[in-house]
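1st attempt posting a full record on here, be nice pls
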Amino acid sequence: WLRARGVEHIHSYCVDNCLVRVADPTFVGYAALRGAECGALVVPKKSWDESVGVICLRNGRFAVVEYSEIDAETAQTTRPGSAELAFNAGNICNHYYTLDFLQKRVPGIEAQLEHHVAKKKIKCVDLESGAQVAPAKPNGIKLERFVFDVFPFVDRMAILEVDRKDQFSPLKNAPGSGSDCPETSRDDLIAQCIRFAEAAGARVQVAPGSAPRFEISALVSYAGEGLESLCGKTLAADQHIVDVDSVVTA
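the predicted structure (as tokens):
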């Protein structure tokens, strides 16, 4: 289906990231110009114990080491003469593949892909009482494989670091948990839209202590471009801009 439509480059991304730039031309173009078979976007980790995997060289091959697979001492290792983490390239599951690699190479390596052990809380049945048990702590394991497990088999890899605030706001936790949750994802998206407007020369009037509800539709601007008509305007903080000619000014 892809071959018939002339597709050569594929961009895949994690569904729980509201800031992803779908078919990111900068990333796809960078990987394609480097002649890479695969590529990955990374962000610097917020802290050594942030729950993200890291992209690194393992046994001389590119790999993603999950946060559950790296010990604390290694995770806290810093670069010589620097406070920067040695393993600091956080994997945000934003990847590039050539169709040739997926179609011609992956079928031959699939059986060699490693399994990752995930400790899970698995509901079960008490054999004596017959009651269903919902364990409070992990009581079993699940074997997992991920799309990035093909990286060790890649000969030409492209890694591009991006700014977290522009391209990564993960949704991992329940509402009200305070981090990587619906509220933080919404706040990050709104903050990005405000930056887009301000970069175009507008001002978004946000009252002190209030939470703005300001969004620029992705149909209006992909990454902040095309907003020149907002220059010099003071915009209301509560609005969804679907047309730059009908914005609400404060």
